[in-house]
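Quick one: co-fold with zinc ion.
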Amino acid sequence: MSKKKTTLPLHSEIAVDMTWDLSAIYDDQKKWEEDFKKLDGLLSAAAAFKGRLGESASVLAEAFKTSDELERIGEKVYVYAHLLSDQDTSISAHRALVDRASSKFAEISGELSWFEPELTALPDKELKKYVDAPELKLYKRTLEEIIRDKAHTLSDKEERLMGMASDVFSASGKTFSTFNNADLKFPKVKDEDGTKVELTHGNYINFLESADRGVRKKAFTAMYDTYYKFRNTLASTLQGNVKLHTFSAKIRKYPSALEASLFSDNVPVEVYDNLITAVRGNLPALFKYFKVRARAMKLKKIDMYDLHNPLVPECKQSISWKQACKWVREALKPLGEDYCSKLDKAFEQRWIDVHECKGKRSGAYSSGCYDSYPYVLLNYTNTLSDVFTLAHELGHSMHSYYSNEAQDYHNADYRIFVAEVASTTNELLLHHYLMNKCTDKNFRLYLLNHHADQFRGTIYRQTMFAEFEKIIHQKAEQGIPLTADELSQSYFKLNNDYHGNIVKPDQRIEMEWARIPHFYYNFYVYKYATGLSAAAELSKNILSGDPGKLDAYLGFLKAGDTKDVLDIMKNAGVDLSTPEPVNVALEEFARTVEQLDNEL
Ligand SMILES: [Zn+2]
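Sure, here it is.
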């Protein structure tokens, strides 16, 4: 727990080659201001198309082109400001740029909000003509999506009302978020040194990772006892949010809230159900993992607070930045020459901001726009986990790089559904490389544990969440009130199903539903599970050395948003409409648990 912070350097004191090169976006701030100014002119130009979209294919093509240009420059302006600000968040002049860019962005989306409804309101015959018009070739998919959406679009008047009420509709979710982030306070908990530390959302996981069982138990108890005190209020906010989903689904003529949510990605409900069935079918491997965990802890049974503490001796190896880059480059070699030469650019062109420094945004991400490098922010501290983060974020960046290179601006942005596939594929390739390379026992144990935890956290846990979402929406649709008791009973039962006999049932966990913000996201988390399942199969394909399979994978990186996500994945080599990829992934998990059991 008690990690002492040494004095960090300023961003300006870091060696230039360890920082990202933002001058590749704007080499001075004047150019940023020039682009910022351009936005107002483009906004008026785009607004002038209002009421004209039905005139002709060429008018519509011009309207698309103008609004795309507006968004494209808007993104560039915003991305520069947020990257600049994130490298040292204490610089108020940079924060001011972010504020200006985001207000402008809000203004742009507000001013352009008529665009889609106006298109949707055109008669089907007109829209179908547009789909085949050569002038609108680039916008074909957008137009097809609009036609698909028509059956669920309300009348003008109703849509306007829904738009006006959107603030009211989102009140439950906002209340939860304000309560959870601002007002809710947890008690102080004694850490390993006996120091009393206030429990927070942020440090809870550190407490659960403590090697001291007493510390873990106290943090776990404090967390759920606190939520228990507010169970009725939190049941009310969650119920309000679930009702919003079921209400919107009903008035838009979807059979269920689940189908309404999956509609935008054109994912059939079977994909969701197959995931749950396949994961449940593979629960024995998870129970075996708990058994291995119990054995490592020299216990017969373990508790709910014994699931995150280190199972293996801490991996003390310090990995220099140079070493990390070398490993990641080597690990990604199976992705072929083209991928590797593009990857080299990440280092040569300085896409990455490597080190921790004063005021720098914490964590790691990949971010950029169509007209910039796909930058990576890291807070690299020489741990093995940091090396995996590097591989992960570069996966995102390379995905963006390939899509931006292959697609026109309008179709380049890939969907959230596929967003974690390239990043986790890279992590799996790194795991494979390091397992083959390393003989040190503790290092291998660390790798195996990391690998197993990735599957456990991303596939098993997220699917349990996905199943909970399905259960509570179904109950709401049957008119069953989602009281605190109802939510807790459902959650407790489900949690027991996913933890088997080795983990002792602990009544406190019934309150976990109250602290998961994702339950307010509307069937979002299943995408984590399908994403890693796809990555597990794709990394196997890549490692098979079959050039056809590699080509299919690179095709996925280039696809952007040109097809439905399931078709993109199918062309890449994974059929997510069957349980097969989930089974393949969880077989890999089972093998890892076996190995862990043998090597531990
Ligand atoms: Zn990611």
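If it helps, Residues 1-5 have pLDDT under 50 and may be disordered.
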